[in-house]
Design brief:
The protein is of the alpha/beta class. It has helices at residues 13-25, 36-45, 62-72, 87-95, 108-138, 149-161, 178-187, 206-214, 231-234, 250-262, 288-293, 299-305, 322-337, 346-354, 360-374, 387-394, 407-421, 426-433, 437-446; strands spanning 5-9, 29-33, 50-54, 77-82, 100-103, 168-171, 196-200, 239-243, 264-265, 274-275, 279-284, 308-311, 343-344, 379-380. Helix 14 (346-354) packs across helix 16 (387-394).
C-alpha cells in the first residue's frame, strides 16, 4: 500500500518541522502550512490523504479549515491537534467531522498509532469499494443459474427476503453455492452500499475465531501489539456472512448470540461497549438440528440464525440446470482465457449431465475452467474432460440429447421437452421457461417447432 500524503497546518514552526521530518523519514509525502488560507491553497493543489490541523489558528480556526478541506476533497482524513483540550472541544471536533483528536504535546508513538489506523481505514474502504463492484458484476439474479423448480422456489424466496434485515440460514453440501446466495441477498438488500464481510469459521483455529469476529485491544495477550478491529465492527451497517457456522465453539456461540440479541459487543480485553448494526447470514453443510441433539450447537442460537431458511439442493438433484451452468461458466472462462469455444459435443454434454458431481457446482466450475484451458479447438470433446467423469458416466445409460453440438440445438431440445411436458400449452410453457409468450412464439418460428394444438396469439 502506498504511503499517505500528509498536510500539517500549524502556526508553530518547531512543531511543523519536527513532525514533517519524522513523517518524511517514515516515507510519507509531506506538505506544511502555517495558517488556514495557506493550507487551503495546498489542498487545492495537491491530493492530500491526511491533514493534521491545529485548532487555534490565526484568521480561521481548525474547524473552519477542516470544513474547507472537506469541500475540496470529501475523503480527506482530518486530525485536530491542540494544546487547549477540553472534553467539549474534543466532542465538537469529532461531531464536525474530524477523524481523531490529539493533545499537545503528543508523542511519536501516538502519531504512529493514528497513522496506522488511518491506513487500515483506507485499505478497508478500498476493499469495500472493490467488493461492491464485484457484487454488482457477479451477484445479480442473472448469475444464479436456474431452470429447475427447486431453484425457482429459492430465487422467489430471495426476492422476498432480500430487502428485510432478517437473519438467514443457508444449508447445503459443500460447493452448492451458499456464498453466492448470501452475496446475492446482500446485493439486493437495503444494505448493498455497506460492507459484505465473509468469514469461514472452519478455516480459522478455534482459539482465534472470537478475536477475528470481535477484535481485541492492544496488550490483551502476547503478540497483541496493536488494537485489532473485528469483522462485526468492519461490517457495521452491512452484512456478516458466517460460513460453516456449525463449527463454532460453544463459547463463541454464546458471544454470537449476545450480539444478535443485544446488537452490541466488546473487543476481547476491552471494556467499551460497541453498538453494531449488521445483518447476519450464516451457512452450514452440517445438520444443525442433529448438532443440537448432540449438544454441540446451541438451540437458542439456531433459532436466532434461522429466521429464514434456504436449503440448497445437490447438483445431481437439479440436473436440468447442468447445461445452463455449463454455458454460464463457459462464458466466464472463455472471456478470462481469451478462448472462442462455440459449443460442446453431444457426447461430452451427455457425460457431464449423467455424472453425479459429488463436488457440486464448485466441481463443475473447476471442470469447465480446466476444459477451457485444455481445449485447442472451438468444440469441447470428451477427451477434454477428466478421466473420473468419463469412467463414471460411461457405465451409465446415455441421456437423450440433440445430435447437433450447438447451444441453439440444446435450447431447441429444452423447449420441445417443456412443450411436451405441458401438453403444448403456450402460456404455461412460456412461464416455465421464464420468457414472455411473444419471445416463445419467436423461438418456435426460429426452430420451426409445430405444436399439436392451435397456438392463439
Amino acid at each position: 500500500m502506498n504511503k499517505l500524503t500528509v498536510l500539517i497546518v500549524d502556526d508553530e514552526p518547531l512543531l511543523r518541522k519536527s513532525l514533517s521530518d519524522w513523517l518524511q523519514e517514515g516515507g510519507y509525502r509531506v506538505f506544511i502550512a502555517s495558517n488556514g488560507k495557506e493550507g487551503i491553497k495546498k489542498m487545492k493543489k495537491e491530493k492530500i490523504d491526511l491533514a493534521f490541523v491545529d485548532l487555534k489558528l490565526p484568521e480561521m480556526d481548525g474547524i473552519e479549515v477542516m470544513h474547507a478541506f472537506k469541500k475540496i476533497y470529501s475523503e480527506v482524513v482530518v486530525i485536530i491537534i491542540t494544546a487547549f483540550a477540553t472534553v467539549k472541544s474534543a466532542v465538537e471536533a469529532i461531531k464536525e467531522g474530524a477523524y481523531d483528536y490529539l493533545i499537545k504535546p503528543f508523542s511519536l508513538k501516538e502519531i504512529d498509532f493514528t497513522l496506522r489506523k488511518v491506513i487500515e481505514r483506507r485499505e478497508l474502504i478500498a476493499e469495500n469499494i472493490y467488493l461492491k463492484q464485484q457484487l454488482k458484476q457477479h451477484y445479480g439474479f442473472q448469475h444464479i443459474v436456474w431452470r429447475s423448480s427447486k431453484m425457482k422456489r429459492i430465487r422467489d424466496l430471495i426476492e422476498v427476503i432480500s430487502p428485510s434485515s432478517a437473519t438467514v440460514l443457508i444449508q447445503g453440501a459443500s460447493g452448492t453455492g451458499k456464498e453466492v446466495i448470501a452475496r446475492t441477498i446482500h446485493s439486493r438488500s437495503l444494505r448493498s452500499d455497506k460492507p459484505f464481510i465473509a468469514i469461514n469459521c472452519a478455516a480459522i483455529p478455534e482459539t482465534l475465531l472470537e478475536s477475528e469476529l470481535f477484535g481485541y485491544e492492544e496488550g490483551t495477550f502476547t503478540g497483541a501489539n496493536k488494537q485489532k478491529i473485528g469483522r462485526f465492527e468492519m461490517a457495521n451497517g452491512g452484512t456478516v456472512f458466517l460460513d460453516e457456522v456449525g463449527i463454532m465453539s460453544l463459547s463463541a456461540q454464546v458471544d454470537l448470540l449476545r450480539v444478535l440479541q443485544e446488537r452490541e459487543f466488546r473487543r476481547i480485553g476491552g471494556t467499551q461497549i460497541i453498538p453494531v448494526d449488521v445483518r447476519v447470514i450464516s451457512a452450514s453443510n452440517q445438520d444443525l438440528k442433529k448438532a443440537i441433539v448432540e449438544k454441540t450447537f446451541r438451540e437458542d442460537l439456531y433459532y436466532r440464525l434461522n429466521a429464514v431458511s434456504i436449503d440448497l439442493p445437490l447438483l445431481k438433484e437439479r440436473k436440468e440446470d447442468i447445461p445452463f451452468l455449463i454455458e454460464h461458466f463457459l462464458k466466464i472462462y472463455c472471456t478470462k482465457e481469451k478462448k472462442k469455444i462455440k459449443s460442446i459435443s453431444r457426447k461430452a454434454l451427455s457425460l457431464m449431465v449423467k455424472y453425479d458431481w459429488p463436488g457440486n457446482i464448485r466441481e463443475l466450475e473447476n471442470v469447465i475452467e480446466r476444459t477451457v484451458i485444455l481445449s485447442k479447438g472451438d468444440i469441447i470433446m470428451p477427451k477434454h474432460l477428466s478421466e473420473v467423469i468419463q469412467e463414471d458416466t460411461y457405465k451409465q445409460t446415455p441421456v437423450d440429447l440433440p445430435l447437433d453440438d450447438s447451444l441453439e440445438a440444446m435450447e431447441k431440445a429444452h423447449i420441445l421437452t417443456i412443450l411436451k411436458k405441458l401438453n403444448c400449452n403456450i402460456s404455461k410453457t412460456a412461464l416455465a421457461l421464464k420468457i414472455d409468450r411473444g419471445t416463445l412464439h419467436n423461438k418456435l418460428r426460429k426452430y420451426k417447432i409445430k405444436t399439436k394444438r392451435e397456438m392463439p396469439y
